[in-house]
Design goal:
OB fold (Dihydrolipoamide Acetyltransferase, E2P), 5-stranded mixed β-barrel, 4-stranded antiparallel sheet, binds zinc ion
Length: 128
């Protein structure tokens, strides 16, 4: 099965992975995923911004039951996973998190293969 990125607008580059947000030239707000208009001041002067690849776990929870479609349950069956927000400095990014983690852990961006063959992203603890 050929692996493809679940949404090409999520990434500025894949190797090594870097997420693509957008920054507002008018007010400086940074958002993810890419937005054509600024959610803070409605300016259309949004520019692609490569986001930091390391941050800290801001909060997290465990997804203990299978989400609704389009989530695809792996052939091996559903297993609970961690989701949360990672503080990248200019913004918080909602993400899968390769747990276990505690709030404040330093994490870095990783590519995440999904059950259907697509590639998404996750943050995982930095190997010491
Ligand atoms: Zn703005």
């Amino acid at each position: 099965m050929e692996e493809t990125v679940v949404d090409e607008t999520l990434f500025a580059q894949l190797d090594p992975p870097v997420l693509a947000g957008s920054g507002c030239a008018a007010c400086g707000v940074v958002v993810f995923p890419f937005a054509a208009r600024c959610p803070a001041c409605a300016s259309a002067a949004m520019e692609q911004r490569s986001l930091p690849t390391r941050g800290r776990v801001w909060t997290w929870t465990s997804q203990s039951f299978a989400p609704k479609p389009p989530y695809e349950i792996p052939e091996s069956g559903f297993e609970p996973f961690v989701v949360g927000y990672v503080d990248l400095g200019p913004l918080l990014v909602e993400s899968r998190i390769l747990g276990p983690v505690v709030i404040g852990d330093e994490v870095e961006l990783r590519l995440l293969p999904l059950a259907g063959g697509d590639i998404s992203f996750a943050f995982g603890k930095i190997a010491e």
